Amino acid sequence: MHLEILTPEKKLFSDEASAVQFPGAGGSFQVLNNHAPIISSLKNGVISVKHGNTSTDFKVTGGFVEVLNNKVSVLVEGVQQ
Fold it and tell me: Could you give the domains of the chain?
């Protein structure tokens, strides 16, 4: 699936991913290939992205995620370093 993570200032990630773990406002959840369509708000926490043989974590401060037709679009308020 294709994943894009964006902040108001820049694009953090744009590539294929096999799994993504999100800090959902109602609890943590994971998105895999061919996931059902969903829109969810995100709370402060870590987005974990598995791509290839590696994993990348982004510590984010809230936002939203939309999953539709194997495309995952994430808009976050900011990233903590």
Answer: 2-76 (2.60.15.10)
